[in-house]
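User: I'm putting together notes for a lab meeting next week and I want to include a structural view of one of the chains we've been expressing. I don't have a solved structure, so I'd like a prediction I can at least talk through. The sequence is below, exactly as it appears in our construct file.
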Amino acid sequence: MRKNIFVFVFTLLISQTAMSNDCPEVLNTKLNNLTGESVDFCNYRGKVILAVNTASYCGNTPQYEALEALYQKYSEKDFVVIGFPANNFGNQEPGSNEDIQNFCKLNYGVSFPMIEKTDVVGPNTNPIFKELQTMTGDAPQWNFHKYLISRNGDQAFSFTASMDPMNAKLVKRLEELL
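Assistant: Thanks for the context. Below is the predicted structure for the 178-residue chain, given as structure tokens.
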């Protein structure tokens, strides 16, 4: 009887530990947002995520408008857009985090989460983009590269910088994941 109780308690403890550590590898990190607050990406598990490297002074910058529209349209279905400002391409994101936040809000009404300025390629690539590049085999070639991540983090899909966020191919894949 004691052995059965021990096995039950041990199994229960292992199950709870496994459940608390079920954060997908791609989300198993913390980064700061534009105001310097820590963001635990494990809190996004269970949501479909569109991760986008952004820049304020790029020909693709008007995509902020479509990204915000996509976020507004699907956010109630557990979808989130997350912006990752980066200065990796053409020095097109030279400002501070405060500059970026003000630019996004004033010019495009961005309300989706934005992470502090980060690297999305090269030796200092943030852990999320590093994992997304491993999962998809694609690294950003320019600003506004998009990665769509499934709810459980086991799938990621890559979309080029030039693809509009409201493109039928991207929206179809998003709706399949929702």
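A couple of points you could mention at the meeting. The longest strand covers residues 48-54. The CA atoms of residues 5 and 21 lie 24 Å apart.

User: Perfect, that's what I needed.
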